[in-house]
Amino acid sequence: MSMNLFDLTGKTAVIIGGNSTLGGAMAVGLGGHGADVAIVGRNMEKSEEVAKRVEEAGGKARCFSADATNADDLRRVLSEVLAWTGRCDVLMNCPGMNSPTPFFELQMDEWDAIMDVNLKSVVLACQIFGKHMVDKGEGGSIINISSVSSEPPLSRVFTYSASKAAVNNVTQFLAREFAPARVRVNAIIPGFFPAEQNRKILSPDRVDAIMRHTPMNRFGEAEELQGAAVYLASEKASGFVTGALLRVDGGFGAMTI
């Protein structure tokens, strides 16, 4: 008898920022392995497109409208998800905001906006959805989406890098806190994937520098994050994995000169 390590049937996955390029691809991966997928975001049109792709992959999906930085919105989404499937087993945090503003020109309103989207949203979701998982006592998996800019930081994306370094720190802190309740907390560190959010900072010389620093000498495809997401979501596959930062970066993190 073969046991499917990656079967997520009967699990509900909440994907905040699930209407983004990378979030959407991971939503499809989880749905294709049997999870019911709650796609959470502000742009409902994009969410509906992802929901359609999840259903084409054989999963069930529903869209929920929320501002990821608003605690009341997130509490409402939790209650709506519980009304839908009665469960919340996987939380994936992938909202992202970036800017190439030079350090001395950085205004604190931009700093606050990026920190709110990239960091505060993760903390709030871990408080609200994480508390439900911990209190329920049935285990669970929280997957935060970090970045290769988290350590060491990338040039030109000062606030983004600082916010993602904090996401790694929060991931490991909560891995320790939630472990007694069998709620695992891990992060995926994607390398360079051509997503909408980073196109504005990808000048030709920037792309050249990235390729020189990526042993595989190419961008990642969004679908190449699906395996990592499904692995971390599945308790059968990664039941003893918590506090891990899993690189999916074409070797970027292993490269110096």
Summarize the structure in words.
This protein is α/β, with parallel strands linked by helices and 257 residues long. It has one domain: Rossmann fold (3-Layer(aba) Sandwich). The chain has nine helices and seven strands. The protein has a seven-stranded parallel sheet with strand order 3-2-1-4-5-6-7, with helices on both faces. Helix 1 runs parallel beside helix 2 (44-56).
Concise description?
The chain has 257 residues and is an alpha/beta fold. β4 (90-93), α4 and β5 (140-145) form a beta-alpha-beta unit. The protein has a single domain (12-252), classed as Rossmann fold, CATH 3.40.50.
The SS-based structural class is alpha/beta
DSSP strand content: 15-25%
Multimeric state = single chain
Main sheet, how many strands, which sense, barrel? Answer: 7 strands, parallel
Question: What order do the SSEs take from the amino end to the carboxyl end, as H and E?
Answer: EHEHEHEHEHEHHHHE
Classify the fold: give the CATH topology: Rossmann fold
Q: Terminal Cα separation, in Å? A: 48 Å
**Extended strand count:** 7
The proportion of residues forming helix, as a percent range, comes to: 40-55%
CATH structural architecture: 3-Layer(aba) Sandwich
Whole-number radius of gyration?
17 Å
| CATH homologous superfamily designation | NAD(P)-binding Rossmann-like Domain
Number of discrete domains:
1
Task: Return the CATH class.
Answer: Alpha Beta
The rough form would be described as: globular
Task: Compute the average pLDDT.
Answer: 95
How many H/I helices? Answer: 9
